[in-house]
Design brief:
By secondary structure, this protein is an alpha/beta fold. It has two domains: about 5-210, 2-enoyl-CoA Hydratase, Chain A, domain 1; about 210-260. The protein is about 45% helix and about 15% strand. It is built from 13 helices and ten strands. It has helices at about 30-45, 65-70, 75-80, 85-90, 95-100, 120-125, 150-160, 165-170, 180-185, 195-210, 210-225, 230-245, 250-260, and strands at about 5-10, 15-20, 50-55, 60, 110, 115, 130-135, 135-140, 175, 190. The chain has a six-stranded mixed sheet with strand order 1-2-3-5-7-10, with helices on both faces. A four-stranded mixed sheet has the order 4-6-8-9. A hairpin with a 2-residue loop joins strand 1 (about 5-10) and strand 2. Helix 7 crosses helix 8 and helix 11 packs antiparallel against helix 12 (about 230-245).
Length: about 270
């Protein structure tokens, strides 16, 4: 794993940390690739049940590196022409890191430790749960650079904060602090700065302690709702309940309850 991204596993939880603090974790091509690889690695590991995503230093992610991506050659024009690794990524404004997060088997808890700007803010939207340090701040800065956000913002942000608040963020590029982000529903919890990672890991451990097959099914159901595939949701939930009722983990949960002990779940 590249030094640009730190990858630390603690039992069933992996902490993925963007590690370019001197550049406020601005995304250059190397960091894009390293972060994508980290999410793919976590999802390929059957022992991983939840992911914490955060940034090193004072910022979560300040978006694309203006010096290396926007101010080199023809800038963003060249970046948009950059060959994509797959036909799927070539047909979208989203880079592979976004696809890896969107398709993650594991729930993602984003611990926003500082500024989340532009595509950095969009990365937070791809998480299942967002926690913020009291020092966190958010901005859809794209409009102030004479461009617009990717489909991530236009798709997810209105569902998270409502259409009016999303429009205000996307059309102004205004910066909002942690408390305002909490009020609008952008984050579910604001913590003291030095307690953020601890809180995120504790939450992730509670998620990881549940039967993993049920967690994966629940995450997929949330994805169907997110993607407005409502006609698929009820059949999926019906099939999921029938399948999960047959699992060893379900039987273990019943036994653990009756025996007044903690269940031990294996994903079977």
């Amino acid at each position: 794993m590249s030094d640009l991204v730190l990858y630390e596993q603690q039992e069933h939880v992996v902490v993925i940390t963007l590690n370019r603090p001197a550049r406020h974790n601005a995304l250059n091509w190397a960091l894009y690739d390293a972060a994508t690889a980290a999410f793919k690695k976590a999802n390929a590991d059957s022992t991983v049940r939840c992911i914490v995503f955060t940034g090193a230093g004072p910022s979560f992610c300040s978006g694309d590196d203006i010096v290396e991506i926007m101010a080199t050659g023809n800038g963003l024009e060249d970046a948009l022409d950059k060959p994509r690794e797959s036909p799927e990524s070539a047909a979208t404004t989203s880079p592979p890191i976004a696809i890896a997060m969107r398709d993650s088997r594991c729930p993602i808890v984003v611990a926003v430790n500082g500024a989340a700007i532009g595509f950095g803010m969009e990365l937070t939207l791809l998480g299942d749960i967002r926690l913020a340090s009291e020092k966190a701040k958010f901005s859809e800065m794209f409009i102030r650079r004479g461009i617009i956000a990717t489909h991530i913002s236009y798709d997810l942000l209105p569902n998270i904060v409502g259409s009016a608040a999303a429009a205000q963020l996307l059309l102004t590029g205004d910066m909002v602090g942690a408390d305002e982000a909490k009020q609008m529903g952008l984050v579910s919890q604001v913590t003291k700065h030095n307690e953020l990672l601890k809180t995120a890991i504790e939450l992730s451990n509670r998620i990881a302690a549940n039967p993993p097959l049920a967690t994966q099914r629940a995450k997929q159901a949330l994805r169907l709702k997110r993607d407005n595939r409502i006609n698929e949701l009820d059949p999926y939930l019906t099939a999921s309940l029938a399948a999960l009722a047959k699992t060893q983990d379900h039987k273990e949960s019943v036994s653990a309850f009756l025996e007044k002990r903690t269940g031990v779940y294996t994903g079977k």
